[in-house]
Automatic annotation (TrEMBL):
Belongs to the glycosyltransferase 34 family. This is Galactomannan galactosyltransferase. Its main location: Golgi. It is a single-pass type II membrane protein. GO terms for molecular function: galactosyltransferase activity. It is found in: Golgi apparatus membrane. InterPro entries: Glyco_trans_34 (IPR008630), Nucleotide-diphossugar_trans (IPR029044). Pfam families: Glyco_transf_34.
Length: 437
């Protein structure tokens, strides 16, 4: 699913031998070194000197590391023989195994695996998952499959990797707490990824073209949808959503997750945290400590320690509330069609792999007031167990999901020559040449 441009290109470089490769890598390091080592790893680390020294040694064509890269680096079926953090018996994937000095360990791993260096500072791994057993809702598993298909489509279009997990990594950390052990394990398993993007199983992409504005997050390590003032001053835990978050693969995030998860059901302080959360956040309507209120607590009460590194996004629907969105899809479809009727280049048929260039071209015509919502999140609908929040009718939830899934699917099927003419109907029609002129 992932597209590593470096891999395609490097197969050409590698056949030309070490010296040329050394030059190419040196060039890559200069560009990458400045932008990423400074911007992407904001924590000051006393050991950064050793990494810089290694970086220097890598530029020398006689370096043993370069030769290791020549023989194995481009071939993903080979690992580098030198020791990395994986060889440390103390290193573990569970939340209970502390990890120190992760930023340097990650950097060193990257230095030993140069094919992953180009693009490292923006590389994203999507992590999502669902419960270990079958869904109680008779259509639950079908819905989850379609929600997953939607994420796979998005990943294929943008060249991201995805990890779907459906086992509990910690017996006591179930439901909304289950994601933290998964995110930690994903960080350990993917040192090549700068960001881990958790997306709940009931959230989906409804703009297949929009990409995260990562440049905005250079000084932040955790991005969630929400309104800072409502969280900090209004003590509202509904003013943010912890079901979709982007977290930097760095030491700060590991420390933050330790803190965050210390409010979870595996912790001796679970009960105490439930009381603290309930007392402070009046909109919390149950006693058990939960991760969303936990996050709101850390943003508002431990602002200097954690809150300042957390970005609350409101500029676009990073986790859009479905109730406000599902009735807008038809009109939005019409607006996008109008744009395409007015610009022949946007109607040009093209391969899915070159789709991003058309998305960029369309961007200047799209207005914020009617742009497709990036993510539609069916909060409270519970597609798998079917126990939706009583304030919604089940039909609202199921029809809303059907519409959203077909709305997103239309954006994908366009490249395959088909369209769902009716968003409430999964059947499709072939699209004619020059559609939608
Ligand atoms: C969609 O557009 C129609 C016609 O312009 C308008 O009457 C309707 O209110 C719009 N629906 C929504 C949900 O915005």
């Amino acid at each position: 699913m992932a597209r590593f441009n470096s891999r395609n290109n490097s197969s050409i470089w590698f056949s030309d031998g070490c010296v040329f490769l050394g030059g190419v890598l040196a060039a890559v390091f200069v560009v990458w070194g400045f932008s990423s080592f400074i911007a992407a790893f904001p924590t000051k680390n006393p050991n950064s000197q050793s990494v810089t020294t290694k970086l220097e040694s890598l530029k020398r064509p006689d370096s043993a590391l370069i030769c290791a890269a020549c023989t194995h680096g481009a071939d993903l079926r080979h690992d580098c023989p030198e020791k990395t953090f994986y060889d440390d018996p103390e290193m573990g994937y569970t939340l209970s195994k502390p990890m120190n000095n992760w930023d340097n360990k990650r950097k060193e791993w990257l230095l030993r695996h140069p094919p992953f260096i180009p693009g490292a500072e923006t590389r994203i791994l999507i992590v999502t998952g669902s419960q270990p057993g079958p869904c109680q809702n008779p259509i639950g598993d079908h819905l989850l499959l379609r929600f997953f298909k939607n994420k796979v489509d998005y990943c294929r279009i943008h060249g991201y990797n995805i990890f779907y997990n459906n086992v509990l990594f910690h017996k006591k950390m179930d439901t909304y707490w289950s994601k933290y052990p998964m995110v930690k394990a994903a960080m350990m398993a993917h040192p090549e990824a700068e960001w881990i993007w958790w997306i709940d199983s009931d959230a989906m992409f409804t703009d297949m073209d929009f990409k995260l504005p990562l440049h905005r997050y250079n000084n932040h390590n955790l991005i969630v949808h929400g309104w800072r003032r409502l969280v900090e001053e209004g003590k509202s835990s509904m003013a943010l959503n912890a079901g979709v978050f982007l977290i930097r693969n760095c030491q700060w995030s590991l420390d933050f997750m330790d803190k965050w998860a210390s409010m979870g059901p595996q912790s001796p302080d679970y009960k105490k945290w439930g009381q603290i959360q309930k007392k402070l956040f009046k909109d919390k309507n149950f006693l058990e400590s939960d991760d969303q209120v936990g996050l709101a607590y850390l943003i508002s009460e431990e602002k200097a320690k954690w809150g300042n590194k957390i970005y609350l996004e409101t500029e676009y629907e990073f986790s859009g509330y479905w109730k406000n969105l599902v009735d807008t899809y038809e009109n939005i479809t019409e607006r996008y069609s109008e744009v395409e009727r007015g610009e022949k280049r946007l109607r040009k048929r093209h391969a899915e792999m070159v789709r991003e260039s058309y998305s960029e071209m369309r961007e200047k015509y799209v207005k914020k007031s009617w742009r497709r919502p990036f993510i539609t999140h069916f909060t409270g609908c519970q597609p798998c167990n079917g126990n939706h929040n009583p304030k919604y009718s089940g039909d609202d939830c199921w029809n809303g999901m059907e519409k959203a899934l077909n709305f997103a699917d239309n954006q994908v099927l366009r490249n395959y020559g088909y369209v769902h003419p009716n968003l409430l109907d999964s059947s499709v029609s072939p699209i004619p040449f020059d559609y939608p002129a």
